[in-house]
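Q: Okay, next protein. This is Glycosyltransferase from Nonomuraea recticatena. I've checked the sequence twice, so it should be correct. Can you predict the 3D structure?
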Amino acid sequence: MTTELESTRRALRDAIAEAERAAELARLLDAAQAKLAEAERATEELRSMNERLAEAESELETERTAAERLRKELAEQRYQAEVAQWKLSSLKVARWNRIGDAIKTGKSNPVRLAKGLKGAAKPVKRPVAPKRKPIAVTAQKDDRPGAAFQATSTTRTVEGRSVRLKPFRIPTGPNTRPHLTAAVIADPHAEALLRYEWRQTTGFTPRDFARVLAAEVPHLLVVESVTQGPWAEEITGEPGEGVRELLAWCAARGIRTVFWHTGGTVADYAATAELFEYRFTTDLTAGWPRLPFAVQPRVHNPLPLSGGRYDRVLTLEQLLPAHLGYPDVLTSYRWPVAVDCPPGTPHWRLAELAACGTSIGPEADSRRAHAALRRAYAAGTMTERVDELLETIGLPSARATLDISVILPVPDSSRLEHALAQVVKQSGVTQVIVFGHPSIEERAREVLAPREVVFREQDPSVSTGAMLNRGLDLCEADLVAIMDPRDVYGSHYLADLRRAFLFSTADIVGKASYYAHLRGAHATLLKQPESEYTYTPEVNGATLLARRNALRAIGFADLTEGWDEVLMRQCRTDGIKVFSADRFGYVRVRDEDRWLLGAAHLVEYGSAEPHALI
């Protein structure tokens, strides 16, 4: 009887424990579903706001078009009235009309008639016919900083069909080197490449440079081999008086002078270039130091147009008609799904297209496009080119770095080798904060060398959030990454994430769109593919890469489960921008995950790595 009673008690305890686990699972499922609904509501609200903004801007553009049409119609009516007035005046001074008037007024007075006929016989200057005056373009007042270099063209024509698109919003900053001022004479393309590298002064002419530059005396003068504008004739052939006076003004103030040959025959600019202290060229055959074009992350990046991509493959000629200014070129770069470029397309043009995330070739291919984007940045950015220029001419190139400290918790020592392998293959990592059992410290230091390793024993009684706060206090690099020892990270994972800080204004970057693999079902899933390259309410905590100071200001909640969700909620409360990068380079690995099954798309039954890793 006692044995049966004890067995019954044990069964009851097991049933109660099972019920408690089931209740906890149900609670967690409800909480996850509530959070998913909250995220979906926030995403829908953001999408609705974007749609309303697009509609408002479209209506404003329609009103402007209608106003411009009315202005043209009014100008035409004024012209027609002037023509009618001219015709009337011409009739009045015509000889036959004046003779008729003389006969009419002098028919009863022979003397008056004779005088009238004599006057009518004299030649009279006819009035000048009116000419159509060009309709003055009334510039719409735009108070946005940098509005002068924004895109203006909102339509493109493809095979006779007019297509409207939302122009790419060109950022006004930030500047990479705010301590440095440069006076720059350049065509729009080069000006756009250099604009974000320093405080840039442009628009001065041979007549007013002394007045304009005196307002903020620059540290250096950069003159491109321009083909248009007031300086073109000054620097081509024999140097003009204006450029000589400009260089003398700079010499008197110790301002370094740089000539940058980017096009045309070197001989056409050789005489002027000799007057400068330093000379650079994009031409491989010239004997000067090379300074080739490179992508400018502020404008050559995969940030999408608000209307999405045009679902067509275009030729380069269709994409870039001759009339487009460079701000509109930047819009066109990110407009189609792919561009078929002919042989001989300049390398810099291909790099700029690739940096905007556009497939190059006869068909769209997101994996090839991502690899090409990575190569375009790896070949060098304009920031790196300016570093080289400043080093050559002897000016400091102090700027913020994007070095990374990684926080790596390893609660399960059996995962150590896998976890270390994920960190070792990353670039840009200068420090790793490892939490784990003391037995793994020596191996961690051995594998992660020569990176600085800070090891701390993991206390099982301390929550994950508290442990991350301890790790954050030990971080020294500008950026902090958190990596999960269960997951798979590609060799370009951190380099791809870090790139987003070059063109976004976010303090936290991660992945809201990513691949996942569930071992139990052997299923590969893709979560939120529409969230690539967007500002988003939240990202996966295991993909977090953040500015250290911003992360310290928020801190981590003292939780083991859901610490990342609380962090994202705090970001939304504090107005801290969170940016979701591409979907590649990371795989979330779990045995099972019911929430993920309901929130992601099934890709296939098989490994996720062929899809995620490039």
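A: Here is a summary of the prediction. Residues 138-145 have pLDDT under 50 and may be disordered. The longest helix spans residues 2-93.
Q: Noted. On to the next one.
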